[in-house]
Target: Bifunctional ligase/repressor BirA
Amino acid sequence: MNTNVKSELLKRMSAGKDNPVSGQQIADEYGVSRTAVWKYVKELESEGYEIGTIRKRGYYLISSPDTVAPSAIQQFLQTENYGRSMRHVETCPSTQILAHEEAQNGAPNGTVIIADEQTAGKGRLSRPWSSAAGKGIWMSVITRPELTPQQAPQMTLVAAVAIVRAIEELTEVTPAIKWPNDILVNGRKLTGILTELQADPDRVKAIILGIGMNVNQQLEDFPEEIRAIATSLCIEEGQPLSRPKLAAKVLDYLELYVALYVKKGFAPIKILWESYADSIGKRVRISTLQDTYEATAKGISEDGRLEVVLDDGSIRGIYSADIHI
Ligand code: BTN
Model:
């Protein structure tokens, strides 16, 4: 299956009934037969797209299914690498597991594993991640940036900035970043990021960015125990959102900001991140495995630690903790 032709067909058919797409033109441009184009149209129909035909002029899109299949996402993509290689599964325990396998087998930079449903989605600190079928974006992005293993944790912050930029561009909601990996709206969790590493002692082989975004859930779609702390874009906006459009926008910004981080270092990401952070300048309660204490959040350091000012005036950099405002 050539997802390039399919996603290009989709993109052009979206121009509507007044601008139908000529099958012959696509066939000529992509060096495939007219019958092959017709087969792609039939494939799209079997995936749930409603396609109209105007005799002697071509095809146009009437309606789209709610799917995160590669061609649905790729029609909106503006990246060079991210999302160009994509594996979509209906259901799996966790896209992180599949992504680790694919990365070990040499999957190229920017490969995406995306699922409609995860049955054992995992969050940070081995917590479960609720991943209801067809309601969110459950994806793992295999990145291969030129970074040292010490620079890898900052990729969580790079991803957070990319995600808030995408949300801002496509919705009216105002997202905030909660260190290190949560994106909140009105104080409730909308998105989580799980960063995992494959590395030699001095070289990153792959950084796998697991991104879980609550998109079209209603409150009752969440397990009871997280209903008071979770939200979705649909709940916040009062209307459903296109998952493929959002996934593509996240990948666009992710590619952009990872490239910025690799080229210019963490400084520009730090400025962006701090502008979205919900805790800077505020009193926070910090819970680590060892203890719980209060301090004032100051900012993030060059290596991605949260810097807090303790009551005796000393500054502490935190690598891993739960933060409560
Ligand atoms: C967290 O907030 O603790 C991180 C949640 C990360 C969830 C995503 S969903 C896609 C990928 N697959 C997983 O099993 N987890 C990540």
